[in-house]
Structures are given as structure tokens and as C-alpha cells.
Design brief:
By secondary structure, chain A is of the alpha+beta class. In chain A, about 35% of the residues lie in helices and about 20% in strands. By secondary structure, chain B is an all-alpha fold. The termini of chain B are close together. The chains are: A alpha+beta, B mainly alpha.
């Protein structure tokens, strides 16, 4: 009898829990008090992933930092509302360039102000670029500015006079930028953190031009020029920014503020979204994607994103030094199956290296799934039916999806080529160490584009580049990248870059896997959050509407 | 007594020195550095950064430099939080863990001791089996399971508590510290319940209890007045380090509820190779554990005349 009662009690508990979960998912009405209040006051609640390390654009390295800095600091130009290839005026009202896009003149608007009330001057940009290029400051992205004439020499100490570097303030309103070669993508590039201006008085108040980690980035000291300004910074929790009344285009800013929450755990983030604490998440837990697609298609979005997922091959190791083996490995990977069965977020099988969406640059369609040819190539390389093929290892950083993909590829290679591959996962920093020391056979990798030009993907493969890490190099490839940097005509330039990518895909120091998408949850109340391939949103366009009004 | 306390506190110095030395050299042995990233900076940049933070000096020089600063309570800059020092990181994250930990401690001891006493008083009856099975469940149910369950129930269904975050969440009835504290508290209360029951049963079988019963002392008086004091001794021995553990924050619970406490900082500092933050948090936890062990020893001595010497 007692046992029966206990069983009954347990059943009731289980039933209640089930009902609870059911109700939790059903009450997804968007009318949570938080969201209502946020919509009413026009405060956008979003997540940006992990806690930013810094909000100094010149020390920042990550996407998280970039998304927050974007709200408070505006570059010479800013992203347009719905097309990442287009720009709108930022600090510069207008701009012009010479025929081959190697000399640019930006006209800074007279009404541009820092949030401390001081006007933004052309000289502030000169100061900022000088800071980036001061070697002792140790900016990780200093190289991004080496397209400025004389910048590399100044950085390495060959010249000590910054006046010889190709950036000049002709007067307070006019900034002249002289580049080492034609740079038609400069407008996209200057939106990158490394090209954003910093306020000289704010920097110098807390240290010298090359002082790292100074206190100017603290909430109470932060000075920006963007549509929003800092209100509070609670590390590992939330960064609050509010409307900046001194912003030149303040009249067109729709939101009154943004709360950037740092939530690393995808499941916690998804719960916060369900509980009505967030308007938008940065990711969706892999196993929840099918659920949202089925039950709440209005809440989930999958946008194209400029990124490629691949394995680096260490071409210094046998048998990966053989081009035929590398091609065989690529041809034996069923990318469609990986994308459809493991990732399920509409990623595209990578048939080339540079992903689609780079303006007029068409992605290459060279690598497909062709197991028969793969077997033939392997035989030609001296390993018929995988006989005598040395065992090698796929090395990746610890993560569920990296493991799932590696296991799938391991199995494909076993089935199609009859070769044995081991798997080895490592903690993040150990993994980076292994990859940078080229102490691996195959290493999981990814690359996200910084700006709208294929060179952001291709230039990393030049011989000895710090991000190459495969021991692969080709003088011909280097020459083509060099040539592209000297070519002014955009059509000819893209043709040269295409030739370079073609060569790269013939040599293949990588196993291509997929092109990224950006998957996230978003409330219908968020307006103008358009798909942008660099995920570079100009927050001044974002608006919030009460969901009740939307329903009407 | 004071002599003992001073003596124990003096022991803290060699203990801390040992901890710091071991952690310092071990953390430097681990591959990977604080400045490595997926997008690799050039070797020159890395070299400059290492020079900037003094990581290019010989190891013994770095070690002595660190000890010198530590002696002046300067824990150095954090590499992860680029505008904060380690002292500041601890100063802002510890109060949060302190609030959660204290509340969890209260929940754990009240629930655990009550359940344990009830179970012991009703040995081998329903009121023994029921709380003890619950506590078994509590021990078996890890916080990363219990946490999300509570978050679903109180956050999503009842909408009483936030499921994530700490600052500015005034719209929900519960303070953000309640859910993490309940999660942690329930977990610890399970242990405490079992310890209390064990301790109580041992005392209840002793001669002086039998004498009391023979003299006709009522049951509740026997338990609360005579048995409890002795029965709680093993619990007090456990509570000292447990409290230190609770205060130092729980990485898992802080992660589940996204609470910016010190437990997260400790784990993340290791992943980020933020050497000063690793050393700072380790030393801080070291002090906490020593101090709370000392307090628990003092309380035990007050409760148990046998251990006073």
C-alpha cells in the first residue's frame, strides 16, 4: 500500500513537471513584464556572447567587443540598413578618391562631436592611427593599417616621423588617406575596430599614447562619438548604453538604449529568451533548432554569414604533402550530409574557400563529393584502397559540434577510402598552441571575414603568413595576391583574386567543409534587424514596437 | 585559546606561500599563453605584449616579483579584464558569491539539520525513509541538473525569478540570488541531513540518553536538549569547509544562472591563462578555507569539551 502511494505521488510529480514544461513553452507570448517595459521604453535587450575583454577599439580582437563598440564609436562611414556592401555617412559627411582608389579624402562633418562635447576633428583620426601604429602599444590588429603608405616602416621603426605616413589632416575637417596601392574596399575596411577613431583627450588623460589597459574604457570615463553612450558596465553581466544626445544624427536614432548581456552558455541564453528577458540571442543550442523551426518559426532566423569552416592540413607531413591525397580527402567528404544531419542551420557546403555574399565576387564551385574519383586519386598516390596509408589525427578544440563533424568525416574516410583517422580534442588554448606550432596532421579551423572583399579570406594563405599555419606556400599565389593589391580596376582585380583562389583550390592545403550561417532567436518586436553578411548592424536604425501593436 | 588562533593564523603564511609557488609554476607549465587567439597576432606583437606585461623575464624573476607584490596585497593586472586589476575583480565578484553563499548556507543548514533530526528521531519509520530518500536524491542530482529544473519551474512557468543575470532585474518578485542559493543550498542540505542523522543516532544510543529516558524526560527534550549538541559535532566539522566552498562560489551554478560571481572568474582565468587572476583567486580561496576551518574548529571546541585541548 505504502509503495503504491509513493508511486502515485511520484507520478503526480512527474505529471506536474511535464505540464510545467508544456506551459513554459506555450506561454511564449512576448508579453513578459520585462519585454513590455523594454518595448515601451525602447531599450533593446540582446546578448553578445562572452564578456568583452576591453572596449578600446584599438585593443579589441573579438566579435563580442566589436558589437558593443559599434554602438558607441562610429568610424568615417557606417553600415547601411540592409546591405553590407553599402555604407552611409559616419564621421565623414562625404568622401572622394582618385581613379585607382589609392588616395582618399574624407570630409568630416562640422556637427560631429565626442560624447564629452568636443568636436571630432580630422586630427583625431591621425592620432588614432598613430596609436595603432605605435609598436610599443602592441595592437594585435596593427597590420590592418599597413595598407597606409609608410605605415609598416613607421611600425618597424624604419621611419620615426609620423608625418611620412599616408594619413594627414589637411584641416580640422579634411582627412587625406594615401594607401600603398589601390584599395577599392577601403570603405568596408574603415568600419573595422582597428580603423575606428578614439578620443585623444580621453586617452591622454589616463596615460600616454602607448599605454595599454588604461582606465579610459571604464564606464565613467568612456568617450565615444556613436549613437549611444556608456551608462553602466557590470562585468560578466550587462553593459548598458543609452542614447547619446550629442550624436550628429540623434534625431534619427530610434532606440533609447541597449543592454548588452554577456551570456556564454547557449542553454542559459535560450532560457533567458523564453523567460522574456531578451529580444535577441546570439546563438541557438544545436538541439533546439529543429524545435523552433517546427513550433516557433517566427522566432528563429538563419542569415548568411561571412565565414568558412575547414581543416588545415599540415603539408609538411607525409602523406599530406601529396596534392592527390589532399584532393582525395576533400572529394570523400559528403558536405551535404554534414550540413543537413549534424548542423541543421542551413549552412552551405563549401565548394570553394571564399563564401558567397562578397559583392560581385562569385564563389568558386570546385570541390564536390565524388568518392569514386577520390578512391582513384588515392590509388594514384600509391595507396590503392587505402593500403599502407599512415594513420593520422584530426585535432580540434573541445566542443560538441566539432566532435560530431570530426566523427562524421572519420567515418566517411573509412567507408570511402578505407583509411583510419584518429580524433584528438584539446582545451582551447592548448589547441591554439598546437595549431600555431604546426604540431598537428589535420586541425579544425574557421575564418570569419573582416570586411567585404575576398582578400580578407585569401591573403592569409601567403607564404609564411602568421595565420597560414599549414607549411603550404606558393610563390605564384603570393604574386597573384601582390598583383591584386596593385590593380585598380575592380573587375580585373577580382579576376586576379579568382585566379589566386583557383590555384589555392588546386593545391588544397585544407579540407573544405561548410560556409557559415548566423542563427539566432529574435522577438517580432525588433524592427529593421536585417540579414547582413558581416553581422555589422548600425544600431541607429533598429527600432522596437510593442508586440500587441504588431498583432493588430 | 587566543594563542591557538594566532598560531593557526601564522600557519597561513607558509600555506599561502606553498599554494602560490605551486600554482605559479604549474600555470606557467601549461601550454598556451594569455595572448593567443584564433586570429593569430604576429610573433612581434606577441613578443611586445609579453614584454609589456613582464612575461619575457626569466621565470624566477617573475616569481620573486609576484611574491613581492603579493606581500603588499597587490595582485597585479588582469589580462582578461583589461581595465581592471585582480584586486578589483575579486572585490566586485566576491560580494555576489558571498550573498548567494550565505543564503545557501542558511538554507542548507536549516533544512539539512531539521531533516536529519526528524529522521534520527523516527528511526526506520516513514519519517526516516522519506527525508533520507529525498536527501539521497539531492546528493545524486547534480547542480547542473537541479539548476535548470528550478530555472524552468520558477523562471519560465511561475515567472517568479529571473533565469539569468544579476543587475537591474527589478520586475520579477524574487531577487536574482534566490535561485542559485536554493540550488546550492538544496545540494548541501542533502549531505548535512545525512551527517546529522548519523551523528544523532550515535548519540541517541549512548548511556546518558538511556538514563535520561529512564528518568522520564520527554522525547523532544532529549533530542533538542541532550542529543543535539553532541549529534551536531560531525556536521560542524563539515560546515566549516563547506561554508568556505559556498562562499568561493560555484562555477556550475553561476554559469547556469549567469551570475557574475567569483566561481566563474576562477575557472575562466584558467581557460584564459590569466596568470595573475589564477594566482589571486587561488590565494583568496586558500585564505577562506584556512579561516573557516579555524572557525569550525573553534565552534567544535566550544561544543565538545573533549576536543578543547
Amino acid at each position: 500500500m505504502k509503495k503504491l502511494m509513493l508511486l502515485l505521488a511520484l507520478l503526480v510529480c512527474a505529471g506536474l513537471a511535464w505540464l510545467g514544461v508544456k506551459r513554459a513553452t506555450a506561454t511564449n507570448d512576448g508579453y513578459s513584464p520585462t519585454l513590455q517595459e523594454a518595448n515601451e521604453h525602447k531599450i533593446l535587450l540582446i546578448t553578445v556572447g562572452s564578456e568583452p575583454r576591453t572596449l578600446d577599439p584599438q585593443e579589441a580582437q573579438g566579435v563580442t567587443e566589436h558589437h558593443i563598440i559599434m554602438s558607441m564609436i562610429e568610424g568615417l562611414v557606417a553600415p547601411s540598413i540592409d546591405d553590407q556592401a553599402k555604407v552611409v555617412p559616419g564621421m565623414a559627411d562625404r568622401w572622394e578618391h582618385n581613379e585607382d582608389s589609392s588616395i582618399w579624402t574624407f570630409h568630416i562633418g562640422k556637427d560631429r562631436k565626442w560624447s564629452d562635447g568636443e568636436p571630432v576633428k580630422a586630427g583625431d583620426f591621425v592620432f588614432s592611427y598613430k596609436r595603432m601604429l605605435t609598436a610599443s602599444f602592441g595592437a594585435q590588429y596593427a597590420e590592418n593599417l599597413f595598407i597606409l603608405k609608410g605605415a609598416a616602416d613607421y611600425y618597424s621603426g624604419k621611419i620615426t616621423d609620423f608625418d611620412q605616413v599616408g594619413v594627414k589632416a589637411l584641416d580640422d575637417q579634411t582627412l587625406r588617406i594615401e594607401l600603398v596601392g589601390p584599395t577599392p574596399y577601403l570603405l568596408s575596411m574603415v568600419q573595422h575596430d582597428s580603423w575606428l577613431p578614439v578620443c585623444p583627450t580621453a586617452i591622454l588623460k589616463f596615460g600616454a599614447i602607448d599605454t595599454r589597459d588604461s582606465k579610459w574604457t571604464r564606464a565613467e570615463n568612456y568617450v565615444g562619438n556613436g549613437p549611444f553612450k556608456m551608462k553602466g558596465w557590470y562585468p560578466n553581466d550587462v553593459i548598458e548604453v543609452v542614447r547619446n544626445p550629442l550624436y550628429w544624427d540623434a534625431a534619427n536614432v530610434k532606440l533609447n538604449g541597449i543592454n548588452f548581456y554577456s551570456i556564454e552558455n547557449a542553454n542559459t541564453e535560450e532560457r533567458a529568451f523564453q523567460a522574456g528577458q531578451l529580444h535577441k540571442t546570439g546563438q541557438v543550442p544545436l538541439d533546439k533548432v529543429p524545435y523552433y523551426r517546427r513550433v516557433h518559426p517566427e522566432l528563429i532566423r538563419v542569415d548568411p554569414y561571412e565565414g568558412v569552416y575547414f581543416y588545415r592540413l599540415n603539408v609538411a607531413r607525409k602523406p599530406l604533402d601529396n596534392q592527390k591525397v589532399r584532393l582525395a580527402l576533400n572529394l570523400a567528404v559528403d558536405r551535404d550530409a554534414i550540413v543537413k544531419n549534424i548542423l541543421r542551420e542551413d549552412q552551405k557546403p563549401a565548394t570553394g574557400y571564399t563564401p558567397p555574399g562578397m559583392g560581385n565576387y562569385q564563389p568558386l564551385n570546385m570541390i564536390t563529393y565524388d568518392p569514386a574519383r577520390a578512391r582513384q586519386l588515392l590509388a594514384e598516390a600509391g595507396y590503392p584502397n587505402g593500403k599502407g596509408f599512415p594513420k593520422f589525427t584530426i585535432h580540434f578544440n573541445t566542443s560538441e559540434s566539432h566532435r560530431a563533424i570530426a566523427e562524421a568525416i572519420q567515418q566517411m574516410w573509412k567507408e570511402e577510402l578505407n583509411i583510419d583517422v584518429g580524433l584528438e580534442n584539446q582545451e582551447w588554448k592548448v589547441y591554439l598552441d598546437t595549431q600555431n606550432n604546426k604540431n598537428y596532421d589535420l586541425s579544425r579551423s574557421a575564418w570569419i571575414g573582416d570586411f567585404m572583399d575576398p582578400v580578407t579570406f585569401l591573403s592569409m594563405w601567403t607564404t609564411g603568413n602568421g595565420n597560414n599555419n599549414t607549411n603550404w606556400g606558393s610563390p605564384k599565389f603570393d604574386a597573384l595576391i601582390e598583383q591584386a593589391a596593385r590593380t585598380g580596376d575592380p573587375t580585373v582585380r577580382f579576376k586576379v583574386l579568382r585566379d589566386a583562389e583557383d590555384l589555392f583550390l588546386n593545391e588544397l592545403p585544407v579540407v573544405l567543409i561548410y560556409w557559415y550561417t548566423d542563427t539566432y532567436l529574435i522577438r517580432p518586436s525588433v524592427q529593421n534587424w536585417n540579414p547582413l553578411v558581416l553581422d555589422n548592424h548600425n544600431y541607429k536604425y533598429i527600432d522596437l514596437k510593442a508586440e500587441r501593436d504588431l498583432a493588430k | 585559546m587566543i594563542k591557538i588562533i594566532v598560531g593557526r593564523l601564522l600557519q597561513l603564511i607558509p600555506v599561502l606561500w606553498m599554494i602560490l609557488t605551486l600554482t605559479f609554476f604549474m600555470s606557467k607549465e601549461v601550454p598556451g599563453g594569455p595572448f593567443s587567439a584564433e586570429r593569430q597576432a604576429t610573433p612581434e606583437v606577441i613578443a611586445r605584449l609579453n614584454a609589456y606585461y613582464g612575461l619575457d623575464k626569466p621565470l624566477w624573476e617573475q616569481y620573486l616579483g609576484y611574491l613581492g607584490k603579493f606581500a603588499r596585497f597587490d595582485l597585479g593586472p588582469s589580462y582578461t579584464y583589461q581595465s581592471e586589476s585582480v584586486n578589483e575583480v575579486i572585490a566586485r565578484s566576491f560580494p555576489i558569491s558571498l550573498q548567494i553563499g550565505s543564503l545557501a548556507f542558511c538554507i542548507a543548514s536549516v533544512l539539512g539539520i531539521t531533516a536529519g533530526v526528524i529522521a534520527a528521531a523516527n528511526r526506520n519509520k516513514v519519517w526516516d525513509y522519506f527525508p533520507m530518500s529525498l536527501s539521497m536524491l539531492g546528493i545524486c542530482l547534480p547542480t547542473f541538473v537541479l539548476g535548470p529544473i528550478l530555472a524552468l519551474l520558477f523562471g519560465l512557468v511561475l515567472r517568479l525569478a529571473p533565469v539569468s543575470g544579476w543587475h537591474g532585474l527589478s520586475y520579477v518578485p524574487f531577487h536574482p540570488m534566490i535561485m542559485p542559493a536554493v540550488t546550492l543550498g538544496l545540494f548541501y542540505s542533502a549531505y548535512i541531513a545525512r551527517l546529522t542523522r548519523g551523528g544523532m543516532l550515535e548519540i541517541l544510543s549512548q548511556d546518558f540518553i538511556r538514563t535520561a529516558r529512564a528518568k522520564g524526560v520527554p522525547d523532544h527534550e532529549i533530542i533538542l536538549k541532550h542529543a543535539l549538541r553532541g549529534g551536531l559535532l560531525p556536521v560542524v566539522a563539515f560546515l566549516g569547509p563547506a561554508f568556505a566552498g559556498l562562499l568561493s562560489g560555484s562555477f556550475v551554478v553561476e554559469k547556469v544562472f549567469n551570475v557574475p560571481g567569483i566561481g566563474q572568474e576562477f575557472i575562466k582565468s584558467v581557460f584564459n591563462r590569466d596568470y595573475p587572476l589564477v594566482l589571486g583567486t587561488v590565494a583568496f580561496f586558500g585564505v577562506l578555507i584556512v579561516v573557516f576551518n579555524l572557525i569550525s574548529d573553534i565552534v567544535q571546541a566550544l561544543m565538545d569539551p573533549k576536543s578543547r585541548n
